[in-house]
Amino acid sequence: MSKIIMTVDDSASIRQMVSFTLKQAGYQVVEATDGRDALSKLDGSGVHMMLTDLNMPNMDGIELIRRTRANPSCKFIPIVMLTTESQAERKQEGKAAGATGWIVKPFKPEQLLAVVKKVLG
């Protein structure tokens, strides 16, 4: 059975690119437009991993990570930030909230898949 990965980004083009890359590699994808949308789709979805942007309307990536980590059934889901932000403080903030990893945009599909494979084992 293929793993389910949620991609959370307010940019439709980024979601499409991430989804396409993951689907080509055999993963199932659940798309969400922001943190609030992601939380509503997370319950009972069987998601194995989450890729989230940092800067989004309604709920940013850091708050999404905090709320996901607060949910007992999602406590150990790997969460990777996929963002244009690369400052050490932002990365530290993400790590403190519970982020598993960090990919800086723009990224290469091979780079994304390498991180996904590493994180999912």
The SSE string, one letter per element, is EHEHEHEHEH
User: At CATH's second level, what is the architecture?
Assistant: 3-Layer(aba) Sandwich
State the low-pLDDT regions, or none. Answer: none
Mean of pLDDT: 95
Q: Helical segment tally?
A: 5
**Which secondary-structure class do the elements indicate?**
alpha/beta
Indicate how many domains the architecture comprises.
1
CATH structural class: Alpha Beta
Overall geometry: globular
Name its key features:
5 strands; Rossmann fold; five-stranded parallel β-sheet; 19% strand; alpha/beta; 121 residues
Could you explain how this protein is built, in words?
There is one protein chain. By secondary structure, the protein is α/β, with parallel strands linked by helices. The chain is 44% helix and 19% strand. The chain has helices at residues 12-24, 35-42, 61-70, 88-97, 109-120, and strands at residues 4-8, 28-32, 49-52, 79-83, 101-104. α2 (35-42) packs parallel to α3 (61-70). The longest helix has 13 residues, at 12-24. It is globular and about 30 Å long.
